[in-house]
Amino acid sequence: MFSSTLANFHVTNFYYHELCRFLRSIMPMRPLGLHYTTVGYNHLGKVAVMNELEAEFESDRRPMDVAPGKPGTVAIGFCMPDSAYVLKVIRDTPASGYKWGAFGGVESVLEKYCRVHEINRTDSMLDAMIYYNLRLDVSWFATPLLEEILEHAASSVHRDGRALVFRYLIVQRRLTPLPIYLENSTPRQAETAMANLGYCIKNNAAGNIFNRDLDARNYGVTSYLKVYLYDYDALEELTDVKIRTNTDRIEGEEDIPDWYFEDGVVFLPEELVTGLCLPYRTLRRRFEVEHPMLLTVDYWESIQRDLQRGKVPVVSVYPDTERLDDENS
Question: What is the dihedral of CA 124, 125, 126, 129, to 10 degrees?
């Protein structure tokens, strides 16, 4: 219950240091800073995270560098080699490959990270700590990373002598990006991760969250194969998304579909698997077999109707294969 919460608990406990040390004693793989935030002590969690990062750097003197995986078009992610955390800053302007039209600016992205922190994350979205007006020694940063941050996030970061001064800094738990995980996993592990990706997407929908950038690099895998969404620059409220389809068109039809001229965010469920940008045909097929409803208009519109009526859709924290049926309960 405390290792992956749907949202932060707010625990009134005068012995919070002792409580967090106890939680860490039974969950030693979870960083101490996250134990504090789990029970609602976010400020103490931030202090603990910085203490952990400082201890990591002092132990081997290896600086932070760009995080593993394909670089993001909106955020610059970086971390120490063996750290449990990834740090992010938002680019002043998106890198090439950005596909969402006009960029809303750094503040619009920060608002989305703050929103995820405040809502029920349905056990499928990583929490984020956001520091403000933070100074870090330049020795923490590899030279190429330092240059990239100062060039591409100049409105949010500047150098002051031996320090980098961050107007804000996003910190999240470090996961293995889904594409990297699939490259190095066994076939069974890869199939499990793909199945869990579907549960992640369903749970986010139940929380009225739609990630219009379905690219698999926006999702990460934990050591126990749970999949989380961790990039939030392309988030929209699902109830604002227009669900459309091309499956009703006659093959060879030349006319531009009517939805092409609609304002706002348009989503074609039949293109979801293509949007993941994964080259593995067998894994794409596994996803389709495990979650066929995600490729249908009816499913997405039914979730929208439930949300609009104030009904909370089902959240699948555990795969169906791990549930007790009537015969075993």
Answer: -150
Reported pTM: 0.91
Enumerate residues 6+ apart whose C-beta is below 8 A from 45: 33, 34, 35, 36, 37, 129
Question: Known catalytic residue: 233?
Answer: no
Q: Maximum CA pair distance of the chain?
A: 69
Give me the catalytic one of 123, 127, 213, 231: 127
Contact (Cβ atoms closer than 8 angstroms) between residue 175 and residue 136: no
Determine which helix (DSSP H) or strand (DSSP E) holds 55, and give its type and residue range: helix 42-60
Choice among 96-100, 124-128, 171-175, 293-297 with the minimum mean pLDDT: 96-100
pLDDT at 320: 60
The one-letter code for the residue type at 318 is: Y
Please give the Cα distance from 58 to 80 (Å, whole number). 11
Long-range contacts, 144-149 (Cβ 8 Å, 24+)? 144/65, 144/66, 145/63, 145/64, 145/65, 145/66, 145/78, 148/66, 148/76, 149/76, 149/78, 149/89
What share of the chain in percent tops pLDDT 90?
Answer: 77
